[in-house]
Amino acid sequence: MDINDPYEESELISLLKQKDIKAYHYFYDKYAAALYGFILRVIKNEESANEVLHEIFTTLWSKINSYEPQKERLFSWLLKITRNASIYQRQSNYFEEAKHSVVNYAAFDHELNPYPDLNEESKRLIDLSFYHGHTQDEIAAKLNIPVESVKAKLRIALLDLRKTMK
To answer: Buried b vs exposed e over 73-83: b needs ≥16 C-beta within 10 Å?
Structure first.
């Protein structure tokens, strides 16, 4: 036992299984920096790394009873959990980036020719309303026309669009 460690590993495990908050804080203080460094090397994003670290210690708290000391040391067990969570988070981040790339591609495709059978005014109203999220009041101000005209023209544009989609 290290002279600076107040707990033997077996005692620490026992206290963690009893949900001893002091032992939990000790374990966090002792290993969080090392685990965070590992997570950050895998994920390369501080915000995500902090989320994973939080998840790891939540997992420790909730799953400590599944830990089997005869198989491996406590830190080794937690490091495996950390590795798996880090890899999962990295894959999730890649998936999110890919999803945004698909969305951007769809937006690019929309710009090419989203509704070829509509007149230019109808296209512009639909584009401003549905693709750019402007309200009817904002569209009226942007196009310098009355709100009632925007409402009527947008309704006609949507009816025309519906006809072209049949």
So the answer is: ebeebbbebbe
Other beta carbons less than 10 A from residue 36's beta carbon: 17
Distance CA 26, CA 108 (A): 53
| pTM greater than the 0.70 cutoff | no
Say if CB 79 and CB 89 are below 8 A apart.
no
98-118: burial string, b at 16+ Cβ within 10 Å, e else: eeeeeeeeeeeeeeeeebeeb
Distance between CA 40 and CA 164 in Å, rounded? 51
Instruction: Say which amino acid occupies 52.
Output: V
CATH numbers and ranges of domains, the chain: 9-99 (1.10.1740.10), 113-165 (1.10.10.10)
Digit-by-digit pLDDT tens for the chain (166 residues) are 454 667 788 898 999 999 999 999 999 998 899 999 988 888 888 988 999 999 999 999 999 999 998 998 888 899 889 988 888 887 777 666 655 554 454 454 444 456 667 788 888 888 787 666 778 998 999 999 999 999 999 899 888 877 776 6
d(CA 95, CA 111): 24
The rounded distance, in Å, linking the Cα atoms of 148 and 140 is 9
